[in-house]
Amino acid sequence: MSNNHFGEANIKQIKRWSPVWIVPIITILIGSWIIYYHFAHQGPEVLLTTANADGIVPGKTTIKSRSVDIGMVESAKLSDDLQHVEIRARLNTGTEKMLHQDSVFWTVKPQIGREGVTGLGTLLSGSYIELQAGTKGSVATEYKLLDSPPLASPDAKGIRIRLNSDQAGQLNAGDPVLFRGFRVGSVEMSRFDADQRQMEYQLFIQAPYDRLVTSNVRFWKDSGIAVDMSASGMRVEMGSLATLFSGGVSFDVPDGWDLGVPAENKAHYHLYNDQRSITDSLYTQHTDYLLFFNESIRGLQAGAPVEFRGIRLGTVAQVPFIIPNMLNKLDGDYRIPVLIKIEPERFSKKLGADFNLQQRLADGLQHGLRASLKTANLLTGALYVDLDFVNNASTYKGPDKIGSYNIIPTVNGGLTQLQQKVMAILDKVEKLPLNPLLTEATGSLKESQKTMQQLQITLNHVNEITNSPAMKTLPQDMQQTLRQLNQSMKGLQPGSPVYNKLVGNLQHLDQVLTELQPVLRTLNTKSNALVFEATPGKDPQPKKAK
Hints:
Distance between the termini: 183 Å
InterPro entries: Mce/MlaD, PqiA-PqiB_transport
Strand order of the largest sheet: 23-24-20-21-22-19-26-25
Keywords: Cell inner membrane, Cell membrane, Membrane, Transmembrane, Transmembrane helix
Radius of gyration: 51 Å
Organism: Rosenbergiella australiborealis
Subcellular location: Cell inner membrane
Structural class: alpha/beta
Number of helices: 10
Protein name: Intermembrane transport protein PqiB
Helix content: 25-40%
Shape: elongated
């Protein structure tokens, strides 16, 4: 036997492919296809940033749009700088068209706000994230997660208006925007501009009410209840129920003004404090005049009216008005300068365009036109400037102008004028010789009492004569005369009506003179005691016996 036949085996390589490998290859292909299909049909991933991830649970918190699930939160972690929370969420396939620069995400959870209680459905299901699709800009992958829904969608039809104000805290997001009491929009945003040092507000007025906003409208703060006590009196204004507790903003075209052209989107306007301040801001043309008062100006404030017989002509500008390089002597005739503005637009439409205000005032000054302070409100003591003609007005001898300001002469008026007249009367009363009159009246009373005593003695003598026996020896005419005299004297004796009345008058006169003495002593110490209450004197102290 040969060794080749029994010792070594001949090995031949199989060249064909084994069907055993079909199953693992198919498995790999199917797995690869599943993986590819998963990632190929996976929706976009978005990054949401927020200050607090309260209520957000990865793998459970869903993303919805119009109550339809469109995604799920995958993770939530702190940012690298530890300043905010980064939330990664995966949206479903086909939602790419909802993501734009103006898309908005916010958390839906139970809240109590101006519109009432919202998000009660999340008490059982948990919080979720709502997506409001955008329409403008390219697709973005990072958004800010808001705590509350936006007041108006980016694609909502309407107009946005910018307001500026010098006072902070007047409006908040969500406050209503009213037109004649009807709500037409809302306040979207409020922020403080540190560079301009003023507040900025953004309003959204929805269609079709956006056409109410024109170039001539004015916006003002509409508070619930406003109380104003000024020279015009006491004003109490109450807004609509929508602004009773939180306030709001109203707008309208001032009376007598044209509507103007429609406003552009994000046009800028000024926010006034109230509706009355709008009226004062309409009159931009004015002529300044200077007044000098030699009486107290306490109660006169900037903004007080300037009137002529009840017709408003202008406004008080500055009280007091400090004129540069003007010296004013501090003596008995010290005068306080006040600047007023005469505003022709208040009455030029009614009087015609050819009405020359300066010429009319110049003519009026020649005929006694003077300015005075009048009390506008007795409760607050507010004053206003009144222009009127004064009878027998003294000729004004001062300058017609100081610098560029024309001067209108002034006179004392109101309570000051009345006080001067009362003081003049009291000075005359004080100069009357009342003490000598009282002395003479007291002496006359004593003399009257002596006369009555002498009269009684005379009456007694007459009675003795008429009852004596010698009376019968007298002639008949003489007896008749004595009897008539006796009868007349009896009418004046004590107990008779004439006597009693005379004694009563004398006693009443004595009482009046006694009561008048303290009044005269008070007037001697304080001449104006009849107008202003005098300080009561100290009670008399008894003196000890020596």
